[in-house]
Request: fold
Amino acid sequence: MASAPVEAKVKAATSATFVVSLVIAVLNGVVADDSLLKPLPSWLQPVIIAIVPAAITFLSGWNASHTPRTPSGS
Reply:
């Protein structure tokens, strides 16, 4: 099973999470203060930061096409 190809859904979800996390990190480094999320209550800011990558991961995995499985030769 270790030689099985990685499914498109996993690749899409992983790539989306990486990109969103990178964007959040860059915005945090550039802004370096709370002005980006300032309109939100302080208790909601960490929740949003935690939920956004997870939501993008879910949605990208949901929308990616399924990799067809081939019968194994074993």
Observations:
- The CA atoms of residues 3 and 72 lie 11 Å apart.
- The helical segments are 8-31, 45-63.
- Residues 8-29+36-63 form one domain.
